[in-house]
Amino acid sequence: MSLTETSPHVSEQIARDQRRLVAAGYLFMAGSAIHIFDHLRRGQGSVTDTLNALGTVGVVVQAAVITLILTRHRLAPLISAAAGFQLALGFTAAHWLPKWSSLSDSFVDRRPAVFSILASLTEIAGALAVGVAGLRVYWHESRDARPAVRVDSEM
Length: 155
Known about the structure:
mainly alpha
């Protein structure tokens, strides 16, 4: 095998990871849509203006990440890994910690509807899935791009 050839095993792993990233993108898209619907259902006044503004920025980031994933853009793995974990952390902090600031919409301090709980958990799961899948693709693609070390007697 030459220095630039890719082993079949690595290529298969990258293809599997890319399929998982696309599946994670669909999960994230569904979770995002359900969560947005839940906020529309609860009404604009259910969150502070600060959280609404930050949530709007989050939706723009989500749309960009999902678009990159579903169009199989070359930057999708890197952006997914960078944004997925951050978005999951933000969703978790907003909904699953006791009220800590104007960025809180705490489910711990009140009894939300079951639909709100499922919407939040689905979006968090989707964001984590995108982060993990993006990281796996990025890792395997970057590892595959490194030159192989030859150990045969031709050196």
